[in-house]
Amino acid sequence: MVAVEDDALRQRFGEGRPTKDKMGVTLYQTKNCQLYAIRCGAGEIYAAAATQYLIDKYKVAAVLNYGVVGGCTDNLHPGEVCVVVKVAHYQYDLFAVDNVPAGRYLEYPDRLLPVSTAFTELASPELRRVVCASGDKFVGDAAEKLWLHNEFGADICDMESAAILLTCDRNRVPCLIIKAVADSLSGGAAEYWREKNQTAKSCLDYAVEVIDGL
Questions:
Q1: Distance CA 155, CA 132 (A)
Q2: Distance between CA 36 and CA 2 in Å, rounded?
Q3: What Å distances lie between residue 62 and 35, 41, 85, CA to CA?
Q4: What is the side-by-side order of every strand in the sheet holding 34-37?
Q5: CATH 3.40.50.1580 given to domain 63-212
Q6: Mean pLDDT of 205-213
Q7: If you ran DSSP here, which 8-state letter would residue 2 be given?
Q8: How far apart are the C-alpha atoms of 146 and 73, rounded to whole Å?
Q9: Dihedral of the CA atoms 179, 181, 183, 185 (nearest 10)?
Q10: Quick one: signal sequence residues (predicted)?
């Protein structure tokens, strides 16, 4: 699953075989498995819907999300690929009713939602393990990124990871989230547009290593 950068899939696997379903899923054959690829669109709602669709329609054994993110610290630069091990859904806020901090889902032990180790441990050990702050907003402002880092310990930020992780957990399907930094701490939208295609390709290269190792 990818939000917006799908050219890397075609470059890697060719055109694939369109399933002609309502969500535009394309089937690719990798070395060891079938890969149902979907471009979900940006944002938590689109990502949750696409994740549930893949699980229900194709009975997938796992969900792999790759794509580009923003860096929330000054030591993450465009092109760096990371493995997400925890997610903070920072816009989810029940404080006024349950007196719990923003990001806290009561069925989890704290507000950093863990990603299953079933596949994160298969990713290259050279990749940095990170916390991703996820919400329905493109964060381009350096001060806001730093706030996400200081408040949640976030290394990166995106618009899909929380939805994918929560949907997979509800369905007891493991997921792997591999992200590449497109815009650095102070890069903003201009850097995102300049870097997103190449960084998405680099991200997919690492993701395919995990797929081929299954």
A1: 6
A2: 11
A3: 10, 19, 16
A4: 17-18, 26-29, 34-37
A5: yes
A6: 76
A7: B
A8: 7
A9: 110
A10: none
State both tokens at 35. 């890969």
For the chain, state the CA radius of gyration: 16
What's residue 193's pLDDT?
65
Pairwise CA distance, residues 152 & 130, whole Å: 12
Residue spans of the domains in the chain: they are 63-212
Q: Give pLDDT tens digits for 148-188.
A: 999 999 999 999 999 999 999 999 999 999 998 887 787 76
Half-sphere exposure of 62 (CA within 13 A, CB side): 18
* Dihedral over alpha carbons 48, 71, 142, 87 (to 10 degrees): 40
Q: Give percent of the chain with pLDDT exceeding 90.
A: 53
H/E element, 192 = helix 188-212
